[in-house]
Write a structure and sequence with these properties.
This protein is α/β, with parallel strands linked by helices. The protein has a domain at 6-73 and 224-295: FAD/NAD(P)-binding domain (3-Layer(bba) Sandwich), CATH 3.50.50. The chain contains 12 helices and 24 strands. It has helices at residues 13-17, 23-26, 30-33, 83-86, 93-112, 126-140, 147-151, 170-182, 277-295, 342-346, 358-362, 386-390; strands at 6-8, 27-29, 45-49, 54-57, 60-63, 67-69, 73-75, 88-89, 118-122, 154-158, 186-188, 193-197, 200-205, 208-213, 216-219, 223-225, 242-243, 249-250, 253-258, 263-264, 310-313, 319-323, 326-331, 372-375. The strands form 8 sheets. The chain has a 5-stranded parallel β-sheet. Strands 21-22-23-24 form a 4-stranded antiparallel β-sheet. The protein has a 3-stranded antiparallel β-sheet with strand order 3-4-5, with no helix packed on it. A hairpin with a 5-residue loop joins strand 21 (310-313) and strand 22. The relative contact order is 0.14. Residues 333-391 have low confidence and may be disordered. The chain binds flavin-adenine dinucleotide. Flavin-adenine dinucleotide binds next to helix 9.
Length: 391
């Protein structure tokens, strides 16, 4: 059951904003993805009654013997004044389309008054870093056709913590900071946002409140679990996620499993697994095995997460990656277009074809001889962008 009749491949949502991909390349009809033996119901869940084993949706009620909660998350504004009102979110397909149109409109306005466009991205996790890089390349590209306004566009990435939150490896983090700075993306680290206004983001610098003027503000500062789970009589873990047993079962309700962003799943080292697609995809397979065991009257096995690596796209300037024990920094000297088969890597499924990737995947094959990938530590990051070459 899902409110949408399509599956959204979020790691390619950036390319919908920049116009490199169309919505149909990142959203695949669920009817074609699920096997014929699965009945798909398009409906919006309104409440879940765990005690009576009933899911209530806008199209009626559904009784169940077993239930998997996979309701995902939504943007978290942390109650910051003006954030929900004035910042654009970047989570769902309509968000990407809205953001694209908003940036194009603001570019046009900026061009009219002969001023550069100012974009602020709040939150330097993976989504914020990648979005800042992609927006920067897009609005500055001559193809944007916006003349001087586009050329002088300013992209600011704001983060409350003193460092980027992604990538996690310190050397890759340094390479990412260098790459962003070399492209004149302004980094404001250790600058918690106190308020968002129609034309500015207010950040705190020690005792001082500093306004960052902005025509476009995008909120990528974190997510919280789908609010539907808050009403459930279950234990909660960090960030209000449903705390599950290592078997993904919800305590007190062994017939209910929770997976993905909605679940706080122990990592078996005293912490909890992150809310990422890489975790969600593996949990989905584990939940299917657990259901099989429960139906057969066996005890489900604990879920074991296998981290497969991390890839962070940095727009046209390249990417940083950590996989198979290697840390890699890659770039395409002076080329446009992105260059590697990262959609697979980013969910930790390196090299495995997926029906869900559709045309997107075929666009990401590296062009021989133009891609350079260096192992961090052995080769220095070299920025070959036109901006770097002239400075
Ligand atoms: C722009 C972006 C890029 C990302 N890139 C990466 C990446 O590169 N690698 C990575 O590991 N992670 C990435 N993530 C995170 C990743 O998308 C999530 O961790 C993952 O999608 C979580 O899966 P899920 O199944 O828990 O939730 P979701 O994928 O959010 O699915 C939840 C589903 O529940 C449905 N739903 C919600 N409420 C209702 C309701 N009331 N009734 C019916 N249906 C409902 C929704 O329509 C949706 O289909 C990215 C996220 C974003 C926003």
């Amino acid at each position: 059951m899902d409110r949408n009749d399509f599956f959204l491949f979020t790691p390619l949502l950036y390319e919908v904003v920049t116009g490199q991909l169309k919505p149909e390349h990142v959203a695949r009809p669920l009817g074609r993805l699920v096997p014929r033996t699965v009945a798909f119901v398009q409906a919006t869940v309104q409440s879940v009654d765990l005690r009576s084993r009933i899911v209530r949706a806008d199209h009626g009620e559904l009784r169940y013997d077993f239930l998997v909660l996979a309701l995902g998350s939504e943007p978290n504004f942390y109650g910051i004044p003006g954030a929900e009102q004035y910042a654009l979110t970047f989570k769902w397909l309509p968000d990407a389309l809205r953001l694209r149109q908003f940036v194009l409109d603001r570019l046009e306005q900026a061009r009219h008054i002969g001023r550069a466009l100012r974009i602020t991205v709040v939150g330097a996790g993976c989504t914020g870093v990648e979005l800042a890089a992609d927006l920067h390349d897009w609005v500055r590209a001559p193809a944007a056709g916006q003349g001087a306004a586009a050329g002088g566009s300013r992209v600011v990435l704001v983060e409350a913590m003193p460092q980027l939150l992604c990538p996690t490896d310190p050397r890759l983090m340094r390479a990412t900071v260098d790459a962003l700075r070399s492209r004149e993306i302004e980094l404001r680290l250790g600058a918690p946002v106190e308020a968002v206004q129609p034309d500015a983001v207010l950040v705190r610098r020690g005792e001082v409140r500093e306004p960052i003027p902005a025509d476009v503000v995008v909120w990528t500062a974190g997510v919280r679990p789908n609010p539907l789970v808050q009403q459930l009589p279950v234990p909660f873990g960090p960030g209000g996620r449903v705390r599950v047993e290592p078997t993904l079962q919800v305590p007190g309700f062994p017939e209910v499993l929770a997976v993905g962003d909605v679940a706080a799943c122990p990592d078996l080292r005293g912490g909890y697994l992150p809310a990422t697609a890489q975790v969600a995809v593996q949990q989905a397979a584990a939940a299917a095995r657990a259901l099989r065991a429960l139906v057969d009257g066996r005890a489900p096995q604990p879920f074991r997460y296998r981290r497969k690596g991390e890839i962070l796209g940095l727009g046209r300037m390249g990417a940083v990656a950590e996989a198979f024990g290697l840390r890699l920094v890659g770039y395409r000297p002076g080329c446009s277009g992105v260059w590697y088969t990262w959609p697979g890597c980013r969910t930790g499924e390196i090299g495995r074809p997926s029906r869900g990737r559709g045309r997107g995947a075929t666009r990401w094959v590296p062009r021989r001889g133009k891609t350079r990938i260096s192992e961090v530590g052995r080769t220095e990051y070299v920025d070959q962008s036109p901006a770097a070459r002239t400075s």
